[in-house]
């Protein structure tokens, strides 16, 4: 563990010489505060990753990396230089051995699977130090560009189309082979084996005429290669619509940071974070760009961290019936802003009698009315039995109405319009959007420098730990350790 040595000074022998490193580091110095937090954490999982003796203790290495990230140093070479140059980094190392960049890189690679568990412990210690209630969580997402070539895309729709055309070509090839050799084979792999065993004398170059056998063999090889490529692409895609050839886990998404302003898609990940009292309490990355599909799995992950939540605050991008039902079934109070919320304040919106949000539904009689008393004609129930279709006799248009969704959406709207709800909405824009502003602007987390989902999660986890540590230091300076909500009056 990380411990002070000899009352703010420590000595060590190296190559038979006595070295003196530490020059009276203050008791409230950031490295001492970081050391104090880490001393109370359980590093048994990290130690299992490094069962053999290392030049620098794994816990000390982890401490130095967190300190480096909190100072805005993210490259392994930068961390190496910090260890050589910084007295504070040497205090955390507590060793005469200065790790080089390759040692730091190997440590990060091996520690990938335990970073989130260490992040969870770190957050828990901060909550206990500040006596923070986890009653309310603010959730939001952003797109982080992957470390991948933006022109290395593979699209599911195109792959399916190419594979379908290839299968047609394969059938034509099988027919051509059977007619030429008078065979009855129906599998391209069997055809390839047959042609391979013929020991065809191959010719190449200008003026050389290829035999029919060689032409068929080359076609077969090409078709098999393409078939295996498209099959592999579809396996990588899974439920996704795209992926990058240089980072198979990255999906092409629209980024806000679009300097060309042409809506260009870039390979990236959908980063979701949950913020409690300005600390990032949880994080996760997803393949799908839509926020609405991430809420339930993200809340399940937060639940696995044993964080007890009551209020879930999120923006309009998370509104959907499955999300509302999940929140209700798990006894969460929804503070999700409805998609139509801003428009609902306008005079035009309020006067539009045909808007679905302005219709009034009688559940007992299954009747739908406009506010002026006009009744819509019932047509039929949807496949889910929750969606009902009506016809507006005035406009002759079909109206799709889901009573359960409208009811839960109205409850969420009423929640955010309460005095407490207004305070939570204001805090959401300050706390979770503020966290993204710091991560992306101050800490430069705009584009990842590692490939693969697991490596990306490790990198983001280190950023989040460093962010939380800096937030802890800022709260100490401002003496706001126990402050959970910013008061409404400052909005």
Q: Percent of residues in helical segments?
A: 40-55%
Sequence stretches where pLDDT stays below 50 over 5 or more residues: 3-21
- Note the beta-strand portion: 15-25%
Question: How can the largest sheet be summarized?
Answer: 6 strands, mixed
Task: Count helical runs.
Answer: 16
What's the pLDDT, averaged over the residues?
89
Number of strands: 15
C-alpha-based Rg, rounded: 30 Å
Structural classification? alpha+beta
- In whole angstroms, the N-to-C terminal distance is 44 Å
Quick one: overall form? flat
Topology at a glance:
Blueprint (H helix, E strand, L loop, with lengths): L10 E4 L2 E4 L9 H10 L4 H6 L8 H13 L5 H10 L1 H7 L7 H10 L4 H16 L5 E10 L7 E3 H26 L6 H9 L15 H26 L4 E3 L6 E4 L10 E12 L2 E8 L8 H10 L6 E4 L6 H9 L3 E4 L10 H5 L8 E3 L4 E3 L5 E7 L5 E5 L6 E5 H15 L1 H24 L10 H26 L13
Parallel strand pairs: 3-9, 9-10
Antiparallel strand pairs: 1-2, 3-7, 4-5, 6-7, 7-8, 11-12, 12-13, 13-14, 14-15
What structural keywords apply?
disordered N terminus; about 500 residues; 15 strands; 5-stranded antiparallel beta sheet; flat; alpha+beta; 6-stranded mixed beta sheet; about 45% helix; 16 helices
